[in-house]
Design goal:
The complex is a heterodimer of chains A (about 260) and B (about 260). With about 260 residues, chain A is mainly α. Chain A contains 12 helices and 2 strands, in the order H-H-E-E-H-H-H-H-H-H-H-H-H-H. In chain A, strands 1-2 form a two-stranded antiparallel ribbon. In chain A, a hairpin with a 2-residue loop joins strand 1 and strand 2. In chain B, helix 2 packs antiparallel against helix 3 and helix 8 packs parallel to helix 12. Chain B is globular and about 55 Å long. In chain B, about 70% of the residues lie in helices and about 0% in strands. In chain B, strands 1-2 form a two-stranded antiparallel sheet. The chains are: A mainly alpha (about 260), B mainly alpha (about 260). Chains A and B meet through helix 2 and helix 9 of A and helix 2, strand 1 and helix 9 of B.
């Protein structure tokens, strides 16, 4: 069984590798995104030293790291699930001797590894030549970041599985998936560090899982917190993972019992 | 001309088909409206939160930036109505639907546009107008009698610029082996036209003006209504750019179609 999933991860990785245009455009996307935000924040800071507790240098590093983390955790498996449901492929998937959701997760993982190595890696290298940028100083710092990033991937993938599963009940939910994407980008701290939000909004967002998707690993990367606090954040991520697991299981049960295949 | 009339006739037929299919999934229809609204609001959140910390972005005030964003929503909505083939590569190239398109009597691009028409995106125009109205009241803007006409011209131009760039990029599917294509890239870059381009460095400004001219969908035309005289030349160039870029889009598309060999299915 483990061999099967390893193979799935490898296959998706190789599939990503096979399309050269995507690869080049991906690097350009990351460079442009990080670059554009760099200037945007530069303009926002104007002459100010500190905003939301961050200096302009910390802000630019933060943006770069946040995008780098996103390269790993981002995937479109909700769209893939929706497509499988619409085309009736999901019926075939259901009778195969593996768990459909685990398969999707494995594929997403293969994609994540690819993006991390080929987009985020070169992207960060290029950026570090232009703007002052500090990597974690110790092996422990790297270790903590990678553990936290792994959980970020799992939580984001769970959120995607959840929205993907809704397709079983709504048939078409592209709108919901689009909205989810912008909500996750905003609430996870990708476009704005959480400390920028007004106090009440920060409190509300503390009760939501989205910070665990980007803000926690990015915070650990910057080394702005102690290792004790880092473990605490990883603990939160673990708790969120278990919490989101419950609705996925329930929906998956229901979905299997009321699958309506539209053609196929 | 006869040809155009033909296309519009077919357009009406597709429109009625569209509403039949959309209303078959009523929940999805409402969900789509709600989610578009959420996406639009979230972009506003970014602007509002940032301006809680600073009075100005470059030379621009919060309400000016909000006005630009509201303006941007209008051409963007018009574009989404007619050029909604986000999954062009998947749907038409990989599955060989393009072969069917080529057997149709109307121009193949028109046919593709018709098949993915999304009239419900018209609500984007409404949210854009509401956001602009709010900003205009805050800024105490005054308008001339001919401004609505200019507004319509600039909005349609903006939509055509998007349409041209987007058509050219979809046409890459005819040449390359890429699967998911470059759509996410455009999705990502388009938003930078919404901010004043003078905040970026020269390279990005150049790209947003002459290469992927998204600044003509946001800040340049909006600058006219904000009475920023420095940018009037650029605002006036918008229709010209629209003709050029939509022309390029159709050209690349036509070359791509002539290169297209079929899916072999």
């Amino acid at each position: 069984m483990r061999k099967l999933y390893m193979e799935l991860i490898r296959m998706r990785f190789l599939t990503m590798l096979a399309y050269r245009v995507n690869y080049y455009s991906g690097i350009i996307i990351y460079a442009i995104n990080i670059g554009a935000y760099y200037f945007l924040w530069g303009a926002i800071y104007g002459g100010q030293q500190q905003l939301g507790g961050l200096s302009v240098e910390q802000m630019t590093s933060y943006v770069a790291i946040a995008w780098m983390s996103r390269a790993f955790y981002f995937n479109n498996i909700d769209m893939e699930i929706a497509q499988d449901v619409r085309e009736g492929k999901v019926a075939i998937e259901m009778i195969r001797p593996y768990n459909y959701l685990s398969v999707k997760t494995a594929q997403a993982f293969g994609e994540g590894i690819f993006r991390f190595l080929f987009f985020a890696g070169p992207g960060i290298f290029l950026i570090s030549l232009i703007i002052p940028f500090s990597f974690p100083a110790t092996a422990q710092g790297w270790g903590l970041y990678l553990i936290s990033l792994m959980f970020a991937f799992l939580i984001n993938t769970q959120v995607n599985l959840l929205t993907g599963l809704f397709t079983f009940f709504l048939f078409r939910n592209d709108g919901m998936m689009r909205a989810k994407r912008v909500i996750v980008d905003l609430m996870s701290g990708l476009v704005l560090p959480i400390s920028f939000f007004p106090g009440w909004a920060q409190t509300v967002m503390g009760f939501l899982p989205f910070q665990a998707i980007n803000y926690y690993p990015s915070l650990i990367f910057t080394g702005a917190i102690t290792s004790g606090r880092a473990w605490e954040l990883i603990g939160f991520q673990l708790i969120w993972m278990f919490i989101i697991f419950v609705p996925i299981l329930i929906l998956w049960r229901l979905a299997r019992n009321r699958l309506v295949v539209q053609g196929g | 001309m006869q040809n155009m009339k033909h296309i519009f006739g077919i357009f009406a037929d597709y429109l009625s088909q569209y509403f039949k299919t959309r209303l078959a999934y009523r929940a999805d229809f409402l969900g789509d409206l709600a989610s578009n609204l959420i996406s639009e609001l979230i972009n506003l959140v970014f602007i509002i939160v940032v301006f809680q910390h600073v009075p100005l972005m470059g030379e621009w005030t919060r309400d000016e930036i909000i006005f630009i964003y509201g303006f941007f929503l209008v051409p963007y909505a018009l574009f989404s109505i007619f050029f909604g083939f986000w999954d062009f590569n998947e749907r038409y190239i990989i599955r060989g639907e393009m072969d069917r398109i080529l057997t149709r009597p109307v121009h193949n691009l028109a046919q593709v546009c018709l098949e993915s028409i999304a009239p419900d995106r018209i609500f984007g125009v409404i949210s854009g107008l509401i956001i602009m109205a709010y900003a205009a009241i805050q800024l105490d803007l005054s308008f001339y009698w001919y401004d609505p006409i200019i507004f319509i011209v600039l909005s349609i131009s903006g939509a055509l610029i998007y349409g041209g760039v987007y058509t050219a990029i979809s046409a890459i599917s005819f040449f390359s082996d890429s699967r998911t294509g470059i759509t996410p890239m455009i999705y990502n870059i388009q938003q930078y036209g919404r901010y004043p381009v003078d905040v970026y460095n020269k390279v990005i400004r150049f790209v947003l003006t002459y290469v992927l001219p998204f600044a003509f969908v946001g800040v340049y035309p909006a600058a006219y209504f904000l009475r920023k005289e420095t940018w009037y030349t650029y605002a006036a160039m918008t229709p010209v750019m629209a003709v050029i870029f939509f022309g390029i889009g159709i050209l690349v598309w036509n070359v791509g179609v002539s290169k297209y060999r079929g899916a072999g299915s």
